[in-house]
């Protein structure tokens, strides 16, 4: 429906350029072997690999896609309380089945910026007549700081941002243009909401907030048109609401009140996860909390782009589309600053609008700095509109009219001047964005674990429970091995958000004797030799959690000490596979300890 204006050569070239840039970003992953290379610097890529694999597993086995016992056994994990990106897992299931979840992950992180840039380009083509302006706008959004900073850590839930521009387009059809059947557009809108829910509920909440604010801005800008617009949009909005409500009523309940749901915010320090005024113009001025969860400064715009937005607001204020884009960029920017203003790192104590709803139910887990995704979207749209207005002016054409009217001429020097102005704007605004992050992204090479690829662990039943040292919170390899192996066993720990004391979020396994001893090993504070009480506590923990096998991987800090403690409690290991020591517990072919 929306593709009638698209020309195949134009779209093909745009797609190829965006895909090429995504491939350049992940060159190390593709050149080093996409099945054995993974994004470095965080445990999150291993978690995302696990989520992608679980989507295929649930489809093949008919298991619950919203819940799993494969981690934190026996209690399990509510996957809708996590960043399980089920939409992407289902879409990439054929790739996962053919090539494995690591290849799916590398394909997903390559496609995420390209797909986001493409839908932004598509959206901006509605408002600009110059294709290059739309292309630059798509580039600024899909490969802008917010997306590319988080992409380094493989945060697919935050970096697959292809759906928000389409949601805004559908709303534009319903509320502003009224050129298509409202019910059909409403059904598409509802479907987009459902897809975004299963990519990221947080981004969906942010999209709803931004869309609601956008509707208010439009209503205040054109108050006389509100009754007619509301009457024409109502059937489509109702249709979209019904589609989304029917599809999401149960998943929403499951996420907020289902088994192993979380009480309160996901991040206990969510108030500290905000942007600063300095971060928008200084490449490395982000707050420490934001740097930790995102890997860098996703709020960076650069002084030229920030200045362009200010100038555009004054020069083209009469242009309704440009005025709206600049206003929405400014509103999203204020949202990214959080509940209180920070010029640099220090809190000025000046309250901001986010303070009014930051701790409201269902909004208390929204990270304010992630409004930056919409700062990038509307800043990119503003940039595209400015370029288009400059270019249209170069041919003596009024905005939105398209081709040059007959009888209108433009001197060669005037045309050259406008072209140079466009080139200067493009270079000046995009060049600072290349300061971060550094491409290609770093990757690590995955090694094949001997213990998990050979019997007995490779042939365990699905109800078998394994505990590995070092813990998953230190080394996410066990998640990847479990996913690659088709979930042939369960893990008694993991890396996911689960309810801790009081139902509040934690990523720690239950505080049993194994967790205490493993933590002591990681910290280098393990007391040796083990006492009789330690031996008894370890045996009790293994029995209570129905653990089938313990595995100690050599080379990690504390591995030798942990192996000594386990020998004291359970005797010598049953197997030695590639250096890994394996204890088989409570199995017919084990010692039945």
Radius of gyration, in angstroms, nearest whole number: 27 Å
Our measurement of the CA-to-CA distance between the termini, rounded to an integer number of angstroms, reads 66 Å
Poorly predicted regions are 394-409, 587-593
How many strands?
A: 13
Number of helices: 23
Reported for the largest beta sheet, the result is: 5 strands, mixed
Residues in β-strands, percent: 5-15%
The shape is: elongated
Classify the helix fraction into a percent range: 40-55%
Strand order of the largest sheet: 8-7-11-13-12
Core attributes:
single chain; 593 residues; alpha+beta; 5-stranded mixed sheet; elongated; two-stranded antiparallel ribbon
Describe the structure in your own words.
The chain has 593 residues and is of the alpha+beta class. The protein folds into two domains: 8-37 and 100-434, no CATH class; 450-584, no CATH class. The chain has 23 helices and 13 strands. The chain has helices spanning 8-25, 27-31, 44-61, 86-91, 93-99, 101-124, 131-142, 145-151, 156-159, 163-177, 182-197, 201-221, 226-257, 288-294, 303-315, 320-336, 372-394, 412-430, 450-453, 477-484, 513-523, 532-544, 559-570, and strands at 37-39, 67-68, 77-78, 340-342, 347-351, 443-445, 465-469, 490-491, 498-499, 505-506, 549-552, 575-577, 580-584. The chain has a five-stranded mixed beta sheet, with helices on one face. Strands 1-6 form a two-stranded antiparallel sheet. A hairpin with a 2-residue loop joins strand 12 (575-577) and strand 13. The chain is elongated, with a radius of gyration of 27 Å. The protein starts with 7 loop residues before the first helix and ends in a 9-residue tail after the last strand. Mean pLDDT is 89; it is low at 394-409 and 587-593.
């Amino acid at each position: 429906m929306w593709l009638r204006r698209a020309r195949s050569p134009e779209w093909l070239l745009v797609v190829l350029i965006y895909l090429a840039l995504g491939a350049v970003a992940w060159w190390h992953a593709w050149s080093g072997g996409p099945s054995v290379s993974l994004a470095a610097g965080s445990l999150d890529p291993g978690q995302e690999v696990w989520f992608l694999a679980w989507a295929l597993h649930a489809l093949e086995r008919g298991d619950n896609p919203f819940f799993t016992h494969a981690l934190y056994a026996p209690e399990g994990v509510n996957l809708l309380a996590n960043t399980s990106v089920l939409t992407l897992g289902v879409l990439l299931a054929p790739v996962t089945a053919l090539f494995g979840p690591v290849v799916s992950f590398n394909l997903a992180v390559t496609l995420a910026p390209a797909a986001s840039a493409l839908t932004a380009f598509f959206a901006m083509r509605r408002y600009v007549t110059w294709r290059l302006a739309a292309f630059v706008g798509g580039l600024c959004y899909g490969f802008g700081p917010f997306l590319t900073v988080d992409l380094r850590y493989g945060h697919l839930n935050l970096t697959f941002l292809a759906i928000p521009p389409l949601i805004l387009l559908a709303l534009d059809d319903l509320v502003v243009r009224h050129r298509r059947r409202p019910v059909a557009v409403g059904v598409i809108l509802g479907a987009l909401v459902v897809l975004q829910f299963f990519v990221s509920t947080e981004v969906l909440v942010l999209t709803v907030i931004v869309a609601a604010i956008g509707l208010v801005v439009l209503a205040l800008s054109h108050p006389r048109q509100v009754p007619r617009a509301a009457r024409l949009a109502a059937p489509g909005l109702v249709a979209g609401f019904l589609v989304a409500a029917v599809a999401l009523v149960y998943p929403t309940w499951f996420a907020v009140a289902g088994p192993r749901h979380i009480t309160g915010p996901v991040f206990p320090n969510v108030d500290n996860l905000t942007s600063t005024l300095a971060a928008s113009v200084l490449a490395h001025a982000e707050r420490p909390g934001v740097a930790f969860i995102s890997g860098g400064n996703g709020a960076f715009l650069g002084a030229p782009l920030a200045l362009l937005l200010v100038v555009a607001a004054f020069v083209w204020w009469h242009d309704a589309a440009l005025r709206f884009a600049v206003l929405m960029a400014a509103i999203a920017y204020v949202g990214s600053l959080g509940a209180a203003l920070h010029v640099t790192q220090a809190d000025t104590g000046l309250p901001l609008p986010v303070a009014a709803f930051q701790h409201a139910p269902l909004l208390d887990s929204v990270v304010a700095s992630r409004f930056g995704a919409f700062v990038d979207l509307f800043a990119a749209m503003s940039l595209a509109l400015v370029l288009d207005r400059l270019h249209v002016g170069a041919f003596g054409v009024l905005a939105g009219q398209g081709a040059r009217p007959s009888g209108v001429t433009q001197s060669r020097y005037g045309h050259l001047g406008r072209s140079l102005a466009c080139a200067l704007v493009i270079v000046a605004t995009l060049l600072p964005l290349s300061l971060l992050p550094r491409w290609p992204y770093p990757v690590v090479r995955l090694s094949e674990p001997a213990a998990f690829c050979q019997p007995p662990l490779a042939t365990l039943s699905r109800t078998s429970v394994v505990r590995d040292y070092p813990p998953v919170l230190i080394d996410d390899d066990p998640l990847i091995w479990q996913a690659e192996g088709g979930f042939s066993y369960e893990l008694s720990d993991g890396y996911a958000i689960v309810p801790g004391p009081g139902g509040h979020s934690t990523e720690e396994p239950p505080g049993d004797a194994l967790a205490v001893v493993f933590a002591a090993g990681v910290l280098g504070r393990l007391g040796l030799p083990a006492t009789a009480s330690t031996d008894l506590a370890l045996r009790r923990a293994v029995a209570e959690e129905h653990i089938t096998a313990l595995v100690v991987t050599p080379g990690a800090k504390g591995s030798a000490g942990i192996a000594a403690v386990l020998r004291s409690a359970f005797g010598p290991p049953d197997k030695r596979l590639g250096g890994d020591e394996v204890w088989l517990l409570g199995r017919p072919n084990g010692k039945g300890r």
